[in-house]
Fold:
Amino acid sequence: MADIPWWARESLWRKMAIWITAIMAVILIFLSFHSVALITAGSARVPAYSVINQRIDYRFDRERNRQQPVIGDPAPLFGRVLSEADAEQLVRRGKLTFQARNCINCHTILGNGAYYAPDLTKAWLDPGWGTEEARERLMKEFLMDPYTNARTFGTGRRMPDLDLTEDEAEALIAFLKWTAAIDTNGFPAAFPTIKQGGGT
Amino acid sequence: MSTPGVEDWSNLNAGQRIAMKYFIVAMVLFVAQILFGLLAGMQYIYPNFLYGVLDFNVNRMVHINAMIVWMLYGFIGSVYWLVEDEAETELVGAKLANINFWVLTVAVGIVVLVYLLVQAGPGEIESVWFINEGREYIEAPRWADVGIVVCTLVFFYNVAATFMKGRWSGISGVLVLDLVALAGLYLAGMFFTTNVSVDQYWWWWVIHLWVEATWEVLVGCIMAWGLIKTLGASRRIVTTWLYIEVALMFGSGILGLGHHYFWIGTPEYWLSIGGFFSALEPIPLVAMVVHAVYDSGRHGFQSRNHPALAWLIAHAFGNFFGAGVWGFMHTLPQINLYTHGTQWTASHGHLAFFGAYATIIIAMIYIALQKWRGDVWMSGDLADNGWKWKWSLGLLHLGMVGMTMALLIAGYEQSFIERALEGSSWSGYFEAQRHPWFVQSMVWREVFGLTMAAGLVLLLWDFVTIGKRESREIKQLVADQSHAA
Structure:
């Protein structure tokens, strides 16, 4: 053992392994508490569920040098103004539908998932829905009958009919509207949003 | 000892007999992984293929779940394989371990059947409990999650109790602590929340801290044991290397988790923390390459098991390129903003899982087969020049590298056209999907996927036959190596 230099000794590296792991784990746990507190619904980064009662946009912010969500005038989803509790119920139902129909294995959301279909992070704001007035109706029709209303953009790829009920489709749209209001540090970049509020 | 070249369960200790069962199921699931991967890949080329019957989301879910589960089976099998040898005593609770294997395997079978036959459920919490949790990689419904935790506890009891009864070593110490972390982390993925940011926050705790931290350390332990077994490497040297790898792996990988927290709603400080620490993540993987190549060279590549050593070295390089280089390429937030959620990630995922994990499990299976067939000769001069293991290694790697490159080209094209030019709108997405570079990449991916399938068929054929008509034993080489060490 005596001929082994100190920096190559097993005992040194055992201690290093233990201490480095412990320190990193403690830092991660501390940061996790901190981060989760900053992303609870109702925080500056992740809005309350009742944000679905308002117009949501995603605009370039000169100071942060990237796009960020902008919460605007009242714009109730499906014409119904919901309390915070009711909004949460609706978004919860939408999230459960999203999971139970296995959306994540074709789409991404917040960039995570599969790559067979478009990212859903800002689906609510996609210019493909045409106008603000038609959007809710078109989204619902599409989700409830994706076969007839398929838009494959020349790829031939269609969403399968997942037998969504009207309630599930509305809940899913509420979930997507709420998701569009999350501050994602500018992801996706340079996103062209649908025209809203008379062309702003 | 029985006749060399003939399978005999009495050649194996209790833990090793259980290990063989895990390895067999692992290979069945490997076949399923490739099969459903080919189906999903085919749907990129012919979108109407199996439309409405086995849609892309079902095929892709089975593809990635089969992978996760076969790798876990491979790891559990590897640990059962080495536990008695490393602890120098008999397995504690062998009967329980056997029951545990069957319970887990039946549960996996039920989950797969529900995936294929039921596929989806209503937007209620019951769907999450009984059909499909709908969260990537950990889609198993909640009842199965609970079952997995119970089975993992039984496995942990077997392993920890055996080491406690027998001998502790550096390898077993790291292994047992790592298993605690690996099992504990799974709990972070076992709850429903409406908040998608919080959901993904803890989901990444499971996914990242498994594949980029605890799984890496687990294969580090298997590698250390494997080098002792195949090369007769010095225990002191491999143990020191293992500690260095743990320090570097957890030192970079734990906070490297931050590279998944750039865009999910989490605060901006993760851009710096995640970028910095994940950029360090390739360092331990370089260390592993140095370690494996140095030890092999030092022993003049005189291995007791050529196919196993070849796959161990393939692991060292595959881990470095797949996880290290391909991960580093898109890990800094400045590029990740445009690559996140494109085929670039798929390129990295394919090479990393194969390079880091499939390879080392295959190495362990070769080690297992050697003993099962009576410690037969599996060094140089194999029957038929060992063409099957060489060609299967070659075809599997050719297929994987080909797929990785095809997906990378698709990812480049998507990043530039869909992301940078078109701003990720749906029309931008589809514009990138119809681009000839993308379309051609998907065809090449399928061609190389079929190459992998051919490699897998050959690998399984080799598993069934290697060393079968071999009358030479490996004893003499082992004795020489022990003498040299």
Summary: Residues 10-38 of chain A form the longest helix (29 residues). Helices of chain A lie at 10-38, 84-100, 132-144, 166-179. Chain A touches chain B through 85 residues (CB under 8 Å). Chain A has a mean pLDDT of 95.
